[in-house]
Amino acid sequence: MDALPSDQPVRSTKPPDYDVSSEVHQARETLKDATRIHDERQRPDSTFGKVADAINPTAQMASNSGGLDFLLDGVNSLSESLPALVKVLDEISKIHPYIGIVVGAFKVVIELEVKRRDNDKKVNLLFLEMKNMMSALLQLQNVRPNHVGRDGITVGARLEDLVKDAAVDIKECANACDTYMRKRLLVKVIKGAIWDETLKGYVQTFADRKTAFVFALSIHTGMSIDQANDKLDELMNRMDILLEFFQKTSSYEQRTLRNIIQKAGGVEQVLQQTATMQELLDRERPLEDTVQSYRGMGARSLGHFERLRRSARTSHYLSARPSQYHPTPGNAYRESYYPTVPHFARPRTGFEGPSDDEDPRTAALAAELRELKQELADTPAAAMRKNLKIFERRFQMQQREILEEMRKVVIHEGDRVISSVLAGPHERIIDPTLYEIWKDMRWRGIVKARHLVLALHDYYMQKMEDQERDLKLDPSAPRRISEADTWTLKYLGLTELQRIIEALDDDASGYITIQEVNRFATSRPQGWSLLHWLAYWAVGWQLSMTEYKRKIQNLLGGIQRSLETVRAPNRAFVSRYLSVVKRLVDRMTLQFQGNAENIALLPRFQAYIHQEEAQLREALEIAKYDIDALDTLALVNGRKGLEKNLYVVVYLMLLHHLEIIRAGHVVILHLEELIDAETAMTIIEDGYVLRSSLLSALFQQRRLLVHQEIEDFACGMFSGSTVIIVPSDEPSRSLIGNPDEIDLTATQPPFTTLKYPPHLDEFYPVNDDGRADQTDSDNIDDSLQPLLGPWTGLIGVLYQGVPVLSILNAVFHIAPASTDQVVASPLLFQPWTSTHVDLVAEKLESDDGRTYRVTIRGNSSFFSSMYLRLRLSDDGTTLAGYCYPTYDFELPRSPDGAEEKPIPVVLKHNSSPEVMAFYPSTAEREAGRSRALWRFAISAVLYRIRQRNFSWDFIKSRRDRNRRLVSLLYYEAIRDSISGPSLAEESRRLLERALPGDLHFAGYAATDPERFPWILPPCLDPSPNCQHPGLLETTVPCVRCLSCSPASSYPGYGCVFCGVTECLYDHLLYRSPLDSSGQHCIVKTRVLGWTMNAFQEATKKSTVELLDRVGTIRKMISGSSEGADMKPGTTVERGRDPRPSPLMQAKDRLKHNGGQGDKDGDEPQEVRELATMDAGRSETATDRNSRPVLCITCTEKVTLPCWTCAECEESVTICDACDKNGGIDQGTHKSTHTLLLAYPGEDTRSRSVSPYSRSRRRRSPLPVAFAPTAVQTDGSGGVNEQRLEAVEERLTKIEDRFEAVESGVARMERMLAAALAALNVPPAT
């Protein structure tokens, strides 16, 4: 049987000797078949007889027992009776191929159920009835192939449609069971009654199918329907028995939660009580953990892994806090934080409760509560539709595994043909070498693993010795061992035997059976000898895992490098993925004992390694690389132990994830793309830990030293299962290999690798309709016809605890798969929470027939589904109603028991977002409908006029509004909140009625600030009189300090503060620079997007050089004697130490050469020219130090503080008054040049500072002339005396405190010296 039966019709086939026209031949064949079947059924050891007894083991003895006990016995014995039934049905399908489709489906779902590891009796009851239906097909053993009934129809034609329908029912039931098992514990309890009804429906379906099978077969067998029915059929038709079964078989955990719900007043009351729901959530987690600890880790329910995904999603946002930024002079402008989606991109409906200032645990609990309510809103039918794609993949993977198991039985040349087993158990061994060893050792059906492997070793060593002896006697003698396999004997030593034992002993029991020997022999690659196969497990597997370990580390290094090049919105998710996955991978790989010495042997095994990798890649591609549970991992890995393929699976998963990250260089990834990738890697680690725990249990059962055995097993691969890897801030530190091997930009990344569609990069699409290409049919319910077409309206969302109106723009089309629904897919409705949003509208039963339910769902768990109950107006132009959080339009209750109000919604037909942005809210219409509508009409008309004129004022106003909104959202994203009521109110005002395109653009820019340099930073040191306590109004001009730590997530801006003098003064007075100079490098920039890195690259000037220039200007203005007292021949270059001038250097060279001048005895020509130039330079320097420094604009004398150009080569000075008028273009100086602030104060770079006076340096030495209000207004310099006295008094108090501290320290030193003297200990010098 090369393939499982497909869904294609199966034609009836006739035996070669079958002749319809020959009645005699037909009668003879009928008699022969009847005799054969009778004889087989009479045999006590016949397969059919055993199965007939195993199908209903309690059918005769349960007549007096209760029906519930009978069902429980059937469920408990299900796992024992299913294999025999499947085996017999396989044999029957060979005789009757048309049933292969239903037998194949039944076999696949049985295998899937076995891998699930959960033992839910509700699900087992469905499989019991499924088995009961399939047992009806056993009657085909009494039917001759292609038997023709009295009506002239063959048995195959009669059953063809029935088996197809039964196969569909089996798959649908398995999908329902899979969906139910994936539900979390609370959902199973709260919606238990609804799920019980759904599951009971499949019981009835299978009962009906069995009846149909029996009826169809009765025509060909002569058996009546009453004879085919048994006690199980009678019980399945009694609903009271089924209900009692479902109740009695509930788990302890479900009963515990159900008792809490009943005490709270029932499900309806619990759903309205937030406090009770939170209590249930608190109780659910330990109960699930109890289930896992009781059943073992392998029994983790699918709901556990769904919870794992939820926790990963929640932690992404709960951990999205700005990191504390402590830069040093070397990294002061390096990106240290990756912004995530701002809060507006996670809009809340009014039913979600918690505010942004709650603690993380409360926020996490609230998020989980929202997801629980969202999951409870889904009906079983909707949940099964969502799960169908996942189940289809799993079904296909299991089908593939069955086929692979059949194909892996390779028939090798020289294999024995088993004809008789009478001589002994060894006759069942296929491989001749193993057969000979087993026979010579006289083993029975089982042998100790070590004995077999030692026997193999001795067998080949003996053959090698015999061969060498024969070749010495006769060089032409035939070889006992092929020359191509001679190299393998070197690696079959005693030290390599352990890995061969692990390959033979699949179950790690320490014993090897004949089945295991045959499985090992037949699984070797085609063309490989047994010696080659043994050498692979002795050394080749270790080499391949060593190579995969190197590749894995290289991939992690490539992902680490991609952090700097991936798009900014993706960095937070890539960074978290790397930190989590790096820890998991280190745990699974660091303890592995590699073998780099024999790496040259790897090409000998490369063909098989590539073959295995290709098979695993194919399995992962079927699974879409979505490992969502341990049973999915088991389907990918196959029937081998996880250690055989662990590193290959990890490598292929990381390679796929790297492709996703490479796509993140081009597009903005879906929020859950890397979250699901991280979850998949976590589940692989769970499988790793599970395998380690199972091995430990086996070793403990065998009374071995568990720790030592784990260290030896699989080259120490599982030693890391007991090691806790501490997350590292720098993942690249522990990387091995060469990450540069990973090319991140070699080719265009395939976007088909993405699980979700990426975010839309087009801010203002021409058409907001995501279904614009859909062709609508005319087949639609008349009541839905008015909904077709474009609709635009307002829907409320909760932002910072205050409702904000958001614009919804949708175009409804006829649903492709339903005539009683219309659908819309707007591109720009909350585009940052999901990448695809669907609105599904359907009619509700009402008196007027004009009421509809509109369900809004996104393809992300961050998107909170909304359910709108809308009524169509009489003129058909308005849909008005309310938004609810549940499908049944139920409203939650506040902690005091009051029912919350629904959110109003209004939609207008054939309107535009620009017009609906001015539509009055419900409160405004209730306050005065006429006035509100008039205001709406006037505002909309005026906007249309301004839009049509498209003036610069209109463009600038919209641009400034968007930039301000982006800056606020970015500020909120990095700080997780908006500080100050004014900023919060401004943020809400800008978000209110924002156009969908503008909102989309704002969210994009807020998460990708590198591309938008005009984002406004906050003032770092706001004073009480700061005019911009939140964000600056503009960054042109912008005042920055390059010597101090910048604000978190604004490293490129430097330490920014507004232009208010008080803020600048407070910064200079109370903030200490990062370096030891004690000076602040204050610059003013007039270039959008200015950064220190770009400035340094363009000008090649460091902060030290800029401070040198400031010091030079300060000395020039203050008339320092350092410049006036310089001797001729000395040059001062921007505050550096004096150095010999070119004249002095020329004279020194003359002396060094012997002091010879010209032939006339005069100085050389070079010395005379330099003396002339030096005389002029000295005169100029003297004049410059004696003349006042003038402003290049007003030519007035400049006093401190003032500005000097940081880019011009010559000295350019600008007074503060001229600079306030804007940028200056004068000569070579441009208005866009960076300016340096020269403020009064002494240069402390060369001053030694005592450790006890470090606190003094917290205050830069500023004279009172630079006090905020001490701005000189005339030559005499009038000041605000009151303000000046307050500042002086403040400084005096600070000085007094410092002196007191120094006095105390000196007193302590004296006391310590006295104590040491008393102890005769000399004081330290």
UniProtKB/TrEMBL annotation:
Residues 1-33, 1118-1165 are annotated as: Disordered. This is EF-hand domain-containing protein. InterPro entries: EF_Hand_1_Ca_BS, EF_hand_dom. Residues 492-527 form the EF-hand domain. It comes from the Eukaryota. Coiled coil: none annotated. GO terms for molecular function: calcium ion binding. Transmembrane segments: none annotated.
